[in-house]
């Protein structure tokens, strides 16, 4: 990859970050109409923070000899966080669904939270008085989830996980979640698989790092991948926030809109090298 192409990609990423920060700032002080919408702000803010961190971790200026750390593995980890935050933003805060189903999702989410807290407290044999309250809350929430009318509609595996103290964070498979979110499943799989090689220090990432030499065109191409894979999910998250919270809309110039919709289309339709 040549420097001009890398700087073009980086510039588009910076454009999206600036628009996203503006949208977030315009929502300061607003009050959500519904309970599930209260989740949107912290999740979207988290996503934007990841994007800003990814910009910092990516090569800053490649046309001079300024010393810098080319930390592609960390960039991949943060890029994966952007995709995960996008998925959660849709699942818990933005997707349209019947009120009863939404209430059930939120209830299972709260159960997942308390079960994880309880397990961690058990693992360190905590004697904090609040620990007993959390353990008791798990039992109460489990009973509430199992008594909900939507519980009987879950498959046996999900029902079993909830009963056994391992409530899932998502009640949908990744394929079904992508379908509901309007995301191309193959693109999502390719993006998360590539980034996860570095997150988990899997063989592919280690073998690639043997060949990674900061400053070379090959390393520049590799360093652009975390940005490129996360660009579409960042664009889509911003567009969806504006759709759901019109007060966040600042309007886009034609060139800005072209960048947004091009990257959003990649996530919706997928890409090929053909």
Distance between the termini: 18 Å
Q: Structural class of the helices, strands and pairings?
A: mainly alpha
Shape by Cα distribution: globular
Question: H/E series, N to C?
Answer: HHHHHHHHHHH
* Residues in helices, as a percent range: over 70%
Low-confidence stretches: none
Strand content: under 5%
The description of the largest β-sheet is:
none
SS field, number of helical segments: 11
| Computed Rg | 21 Å
| Strands, count | 0
Mean pLDDT metric = 93
What does this structure look like?
The protein is mainly α and 274 residues long. It contains eleven helices and no strands. Helix 1 packs antiparallel against helix 2, helix 2 (40-57) runs antiparallel to helix 3 and helix 10 (217-244) crosses helix 11 (254-269). The radius of gyration is 21 Å and the shape is globular. The two termini are 18 Å apart. The mean pLDDT is 93.
Short description:
It is built from eleven helices and no strands. It is mainly alpha-helical.
Please give a handful of descriptors for the protein shown.
274 residues; mainly alpha; 0% strand; globular
Write the layout of secondary structure elements.
Layout: H1 3-26, H2 40-57, H3 72-94, H4 99-123, H5 129-147, H6 156-163, H7 174-181, H8 185-199, H9 203-211, H10 217-244, H11 254-269
């Amino acid at each position: 990859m040549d420097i001009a192409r890398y700087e073009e990609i980086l510039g588009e990423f910076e454009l999206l970050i600036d628009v996203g920060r503006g949208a977030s700032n315009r929502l300061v002080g607003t009050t959500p109409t519904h309970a599930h919408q209260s989740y949107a702000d912290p999740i979207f803010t988290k996503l934007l923070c990841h994007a800003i961190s990814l910009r910092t971790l990516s090569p800053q200026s490649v046309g001079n000899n300024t010393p810098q750390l080319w930390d592609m593995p960390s960039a991949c980890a943060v890029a994966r966080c952007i995709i995960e935050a996008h998925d959660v933003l849709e699942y818990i805060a933005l997707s349209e669904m019947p009120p009863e189903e939404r209430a059930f999702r939120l209830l299972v989410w709260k159960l997942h939270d308390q079960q994880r807290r309880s397990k961690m407290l058990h693992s360190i044999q905590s004697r904090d008085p609040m620990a007993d309250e959390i353990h008791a809350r798990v039992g109460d929430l489990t009973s509430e989830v199992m008594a909900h009318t939507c519980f009987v509609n879950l498959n046996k595996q999900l029902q079993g996980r909830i009963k056994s103290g391992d409530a899932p964070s998502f009640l949908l498979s990744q394929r079904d979640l992508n379908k509901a979110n309007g995301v191309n499943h193959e693109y999502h799989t390719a993006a998360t698989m590539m980034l996860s090689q570095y997150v988990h220090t899997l063989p592919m990432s280690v073998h690639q790092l043997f060949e990674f030499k900061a400053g070379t065109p090959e390393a520049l191409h590799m360093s652009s991948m975390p940005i490129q894979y996360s660009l579409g999910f960042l664009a889509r998250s911003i567009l969806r926030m504006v759709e759901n919270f019109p007060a966040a809309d600042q309007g886009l110039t034609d060139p800005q809109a072209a960048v947004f919709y091009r990257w959003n289309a990649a996530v919706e339709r997928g890409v090929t090298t053909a």
